[in-house]
Amino acid sequence: MTDLPPQVLVLFGATGDLAKRKLFPGLFWLWRHDLLPEVRIIGSGRHEPEQELRDLVRQDAEGWDEFAERISFVASSADDGADLARAVSAAERELGEDARRLVYLSVPPSAAIGMVRMLEREGLNERAHLVLEKPFGTDLASAKELDEALLDVFAPDQLFRIDHFLGKEAVQNILVLRFANGLFEPVWNAAHVAYVQIDVPEEIGIEGRAAFMESTGTFRDMISTHLFQLLGFVALEPPTVIDERGLHEEKAKVFRALRPLDPGRVVFGQYEGYRDEEGVADDSDVETFVALEAQVDNWRWQGVPFFLRTGKALAQTRRTITIGFREPPLGVFGRTADGEPNELVLELTDDAEIYVDLRAKRPGPELEIAHARLTLDFDRAFPDAEPVEAYERLLLDAIKGDHTLFTSTEEVERLWEVCEPVLASPPPVRPYPQGSWGPAEDLPGPRGWRLG
Ligand code: BG6
User: For the domain bounded by 166-389+408-432, which CATH number is listed?
Assistant: First the structure.
């Protein structure tokens, strides 16, 4: 058992997709691994679910019934949080006076401020950590408005802006690879790196999330958040210490150096059939695909293009970061410039892998140069280790009060600034067939995308 104080967890959006797929399974996993303190989980939302919440989010695993005794549901809204406040007080009385609160707010940007005001009215902001799901506003002005409302009610250290990509094991591995080894950092700059690609294609469509997609779109859902955060980890300078302050400072510096996007280097796509999805407007121009080129105007990265690409209903699901290296200065073997330079590839999917594609001598009597791969397979390297899923990790960090893997206001606001030119004049939306690679090739890079 952990020595963390007991917690009352309030989950808004408790009957939604995120709660069902990630939050409840994540909390259950933490509980089964003795990582959670004693908890009461109060799910909330505007309407009482038709089924008991604990049945709705049921997991088929040993221990579930015992864990589920801790789950209840209380309806609440921006106008009325009285029942919820009573339920939180009752749960706290049960848990004892050192009980803490964690409030998880996963609501659309338009609803966030109203909910924050309700928390204040009901005193639910006291002794609480507030975890906020993205998107944080829909542009710079609304993000600032949200920040003002938040800081009116909460102290900065009570706020946890979650970007779950930062909880992925493999993302932290970018830091370990770079800063715990002597091998990579000396070549991690424009003198040696020709391009960086961050590819997050997804096979899934919108999976019933029409209202969310129609109001958010892929640019706000994925680029201004997850993909830019990955770019931040790849591009940041070595912090003196990897802690909350060190990471936030260095990431904020990268984002300050990020050049505001050029809409001429951004491609938007929409999969064919999107407009026929239930809840989608017949003439919707919402993008389900984005490919773009970003530039980091600092000493280390000057002139190195960062290609970011993501979309729904594509041929494969991948989360891949590719660092492409420059060719050797002289072709001592004759013809080696075959258009396939060395690439360091980080696969961030659950089967994490890091590999380097390079050239080697094919065994045999001739000096024949061929392509080969050096691979770090995590399952084989650490057979006894159990990876922690992103939400599990971040929920635990929020309970502990560790902000290291959360995003800061400064980062969020700067990223909206960088996105502003595209929000103001978005490129036309190009149709693409489902199951394809989307219109990525409309944005020519030095070597196309790492696909297939
Ligand atoms: C979410 C987005 O934040 O991340 C989804 O809203 C996306 O649109 C998802 O599918 C991808 O997350 P993961 O953990 O599956 O890589």
Answer: 3.30.360.10
